[in-house]
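Attaching the record inline, Q. Sequence:
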Amino acid sequence: MEYVAILLVVGALLGVGAGAVPGVGERVVRTLRSGICIAGGDVCRDSDAAAAGLPPCVTRERSRRQDTTLDIAVVRFGGHGEWQLALRSDGQAVVTRLAENELGGAIGAGLSFSPAGLRAEATAALVAGYHGGRAWRFPDARSAAAFLERAMRDGAVQGARPPDVRWHELGGRAEAEAVVTLADLARTGLSAAADSALGLRSEGELRTVTLDLGIDDPHLATDLPGFPASPGPRRAWVAELTLDGGTARELALRTAARSGGRLEELSARLDLRDRRHLELAERVLRPGASAAGSVRELLARASSDGVVERDVYALSEQRRGFDIGGRLGMALGLEHHRISSERRLTDALAWVRGGPPQRRFDCLGV
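Structure, as predicted:
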C-alpha cells in the first residue's frame, strides 16, 4: 500500500506538467498502471511471464474456413481448409494453414411436402480422416498479414517459406442430425457429434504427441433469415507429451468448453525434466492405470508444482453457403460453406507452482 501511495503522489506531480510535453501524459499513466499491477502481485510484463514460465497468450485470432461435403449413396467425402491469423501478447503473430480430408459413410431418411416447402430429414454419419497443418511465425502482425494475403492467393508463396511448425493427425468423427426446413423461412434441428484424433507436431528438435477428444452436446437450434443459429455447446480434452531429442520434456492436459459466444480454456502443464514428475507421468501412462484417478493425480501435481492457466475468449462467427440433396436410406447431396470466425481474449489467469491466482495483464493490457 505504501508503494501504491508513493506512485499516486509521483503520478499526480508529474501529471501537472505532462500537458506541456506531448506523450508524457500517456507514458506516466502507463508507468503508474504498471506499478500498481506489480504491487498487486499480478503478471504485468512479458519479462514477468517469462520468469514464471508462462508462454505468450493468443490475444486475438481470426480464421477463414471452407467446408465441402459430398454424399453419394452411403459414402461421404469431405474436404476442409482453413487459414488462421493469431496475434500474441508479445507482439508476434502466427499464420496457420489447416487441411482436412475425410472419407466415411452416411445414411438417412427424409420426406418433403413441396406445396408448403416443408422438408424433414434425419441423418447419421461416421467418417475417418487425415488432418494436416503448417504454421509460420512473424515478428509482428503487419508482416504476418502481408504473408497471409499473398499465400491465400498463390500456393507458391507458402511453399517458398519452410513452416516453423508442422503437424499430422489421424482421426474419426461420428455425428447425427434431425432437421425440419420450411422453404427459405426457417430451419430447426437437433444435432450431436463426437470426435477423436491422434497426432504428431514437429517444431525444430521438439516432437509433441497429441490425443484429442471432443463432444458436441445435443443442441436444438433454429436458423431464421439474417439470424443464423450460434454453434452448440462443445467440450474438448487434449493430452500432449512433448519430447526434446527423444527425452520427455513436458506433459500438458487441456480442456475447453464452448457455449454460444464464449470459449473457456483450462490447461495444466508439468515439467518432466524433474525426475519426480517424470516418474508420476510414467506411472499414469502405464497400461492398466486407473484413468480417472491418474488424471486427478496429475492435475493435483500440476497445481502444486506446475503451471495452470485459464483463458476466456469471446467468439463470433459468420457462415455463408448452401446445401442441396435428398435422402431415402441412401443419400445424394452436396454442402458447401464458408465460415469466418474470430476469438478475442477477455480474461486470463495463471497459478504458478501452487501460488495464488495471478491475472495476466501482460496479455490483457495494463
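The mean pLDDT is 83. Residues 99-133+165-364 form one domain.

More tomorrow.
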